[in-house]
Write a structure and sequence with these properties.
Blueprint (H helix, E strand, L loop, with lengths): L3 E7 L6 H17 L4 E3 L11 H7 L7 H13 L2 E10 L5 E8 L5 E6 L5 E3 L5 E3 L12 E4 L2 E4 L9 H9 L4 E3 L6 H19 L2 E4 L3 E3 L5 E3 L3 E3 L5 E4 L6 E7 L1 H10 L2 H4 L19
Parallel strand pairs: 1-2, 2-3, 9-10, 10-11
Antiparallel strand pairs: 1-16, 3-4, 4-5, 6-7, 8-9, 11-14, 12-13, 14-15
């Protein structure tokens, strides 16, 4: 388990997958030039499109997707692990998946992850989101290896479900990933504290590449991509909502050291709720 550099790419994806693929390539090349061997892009790297009809026209199958093909080429050319935080993929059943991809240095797909938790909320500023109206949720947590670390996958709203990260940490993940397109309102309130909490409670690094700024479809995202160490310290931050790249060193041995100091993964115990009828526990690791 050697030390390596990880990069988080902050974007402002528009409605054209082709233009976004060009922006992604420019920023990924910058990250690789700065020495990153693992590079992560944000949720919905391919396009942010509110209108369902426009999205239906823009989104396609995995084998035809321009972001997937561009990422595959870049990973191989630059000899890096390239993690496309997510892009919309048309499934064989006609439904859409909010899907993450991890490409190896040979360009092969090492892992995919479909976002599990759908962002269905009404915010007090008048924003309303129904992600489940467009996307089919995933059903499986994913852990894969990259650059000498074990990666646990998540996407954006998954961040609010700590049982997902705990399950991945118990499966050996020492680098938790949270590519996102957090709204400005929720990001200002919760982004930093939730990412640091997931790092602290699991003794793991967290890399979170974000969308930022005012997008073509009218939404506004928070930005502030972060890399956090297993002790909860912020190693790198894009302290704005503009496109850019942040880089920090990852030492998987530090995850092991943090878990020795605070052995909460080892000390966790099963328990039940004793009052009245036993409720069904949703999303529990066991």
């Amino acid at each position: 388990m050697g030390v390596f550099k990880a990069a988080a790419v902050q974007m402002r994806s528009g409605e054209s997958p082709e233009r976004n693929a060009v922006d992604m390539e420019r920023l990924v090349r910058e990250a690789a030039a700065r020495g990153a061997s693992y590079v992560q892009t944000p949720e919905m790297t391919g396009a942010l499109i509110r209108d369902k009809q426009a999205g239906a026209a823009a989104f396609t199958t995995q084998d035809k997707d321009v972001v997937v093909s561009t990422a595959r080429k870049l990973a191989k050319e630059l000899s890096i692990f390239l993690h496309v935080g997510s892009t919309a993929i048309l499934r064989s059943d006609g439904k859409l998946a909010n899907r993450a991809f991890l490409f190896g240095p040979d360009g092969a797909v090492l892992a995919t992850y479909d976002k599990i938790h759908m962002f269905d909320v009404d915010l007090d500023n008048g924003e309303s989101w129904r992600e489940s109206a467009s996307y089919e949720p995933g059903t499986e947590a994913v852990v894969s290896e990259a650059a000498g670390a074990k990666l646990g996958f998540a996407v954006c709203y998954d961040l609010r479900f700590p049982q997902l990260f705990r399950t991945e940490a118990l499966a050996g993940a020492d680098l938790l990933t949270v590519p996102a397109a957090f709204t400005r309102q929720t990001g200002e309130a919760h982004w930093h504290v939730l990412l640091r909490a997931r790092a602290i409670e699991n003794g793991a690094y967290v890399v979170a590449a974000a969308q930022g700024g005012l997008h073509e479809d009218g939404r506004e995202t928070y930005g502030h991509s972060l890399i956090v160490d297993p002790w909860g310290r912020i190693l790198a931050e894009a302290a704005h909502d503009e496109p850019g790249v942040i880089v920090a060193e990852i030492d998987p041995a530090q995850s092991l050291a943090a878990r020795k100091k605070i052995p909460n993964l080892k000390n966790a115990r099963d328990f039940s709720i004793g009052a009245g009828e036993t409720p069904r526990l949703r999303g529990a690791a066991s």
